[in-house]
Amino acid sequence: MHRFAQGRTTVVYDLGDGTVCKLFPAGYPRAYIEHEYRNAVRFRQIGLPAPKAFGLIERDGRTGILYEKLSGRTLRQCTDEAAVSPDDALRLLAGLHARILRAEGRGGMDYRDVLLLVNGDGLRGEIEALPDGDRLLHGDLHPGNIILDERGEPHIIDFMNVCCGPALYDIARTYFLTGAKSYLTHMHATKNQIEPFLAVLRKARERTGF
Fold it and tell me: What is the rounded CA–CA span in Å between residue 50 and residue 69?
């Protein structure tokens, strides 16, 4: 197998048979890996464009997830290379995001618990004061987590932060990661609507880099 892609904490290897293995560091909590696997399966089951997830795999003392191999480039790479205009990229991102947010997220991890896992007790009061919601949230949707295949069809990747909560949290998270005001326009949201979530995300970034 050879290295196919590199993430912040994971390495993706091409197994040469139409599949890739996303390997996590040694000692990485297995429960988190299983969480990502279940999320990937769920996205696929409800008809969202995501790679097939075949199961967990053990390699060299590390645990990984076996995925269908997607050939293509990330939406971020496409905009960097001027293959897709920035506005077209944001329009595509918003369209995919709207599809995700139409799905019900009940039964998934609460988004506040994700924030608490990352931040510990330092922001507990502010996080627990955030509102409830029942939408399916990706939790980390940005142009680097969308792959355009050879036909130009988009596919969503990276399911570690998938959770359940209010749509405005996920919109705030994507806006926080992209800084694109036109994305909010495409999502029919305003800065004022997402400000309570942004306030927590800013503090989380200062504390942990999340």
Answer: 11
The 3-class secondary structure across 127-181, one letter per residue, is HHCCCCCCEEECCCCCHHHEEEECCCCEEECCCCCCEEECHHHHHHHHHHHHCCH
Structure tokens at 186: 């495409």
- N- to C-terminal Cα distance for the chain? 31
pLDDT per residue over 78-87, tens digit each?
999 999 999 9
Collapsing DSSP states into helix, strand and coil, what is residue 6? strand
Give the C-alpha separation, 208 to 210, whole Å.
5
What per-residue confidence (pLDDT) applies to 15?
Answer: 86
Residue bearing tokens 């005001």: 181
Amino acid letter, residue 56: L
